Amino acid sequence: MTTTIEDLIAKAIKDADKSFFNEDYAKQAKAVTTALKKAGYEVAPVKPPEGLVEWAKENIPFGRLRPAELITQMYSMMVENVRRFDK
Questions:
Q1: With 66 labelled, which of 7, 31, 72, 82 sits at a CA distance of 20 to 30 A?
Q2: What's the average model confidence in pLDDT over 21-44?
Q3: Domain range holding 14?
């Protein structure tokens, strides 16, 4: 059975903070992002940060790639590097 993003987030929050009062929202947020990364997700902005597109253009994989392979590699490379440029 596939786990939804909502289920991952809910479980991470539940497991992160067992207190009934004075919840630690920073701790919960960290648990959520950690759980998402562990499940293969990355939180990224809808529009690429300034500099990321130029960086990706300079780092395009060389060689003969089928369009689907090129797009897959570019997508992965940009998502993996979004944090470098998101400042």
A1: 82
A2: 86
A3: 5-38
E strand or H helix at 45, and its extent?
none
Cβ neighbours of residue 85 closer than 8 Å, sequence gap 6 or more: 48, 49, 50, 51, 52, 55
Where is pLDDT greater, at 76 or 2? Answer: 76
Mean pLDDT in residue range 16-32: 82
Q: How far is CA 33 from the centre of its chain?
A: 8
Query: Which DSSP state fits 44?
Result: -
The count of domains in the chain is: 2
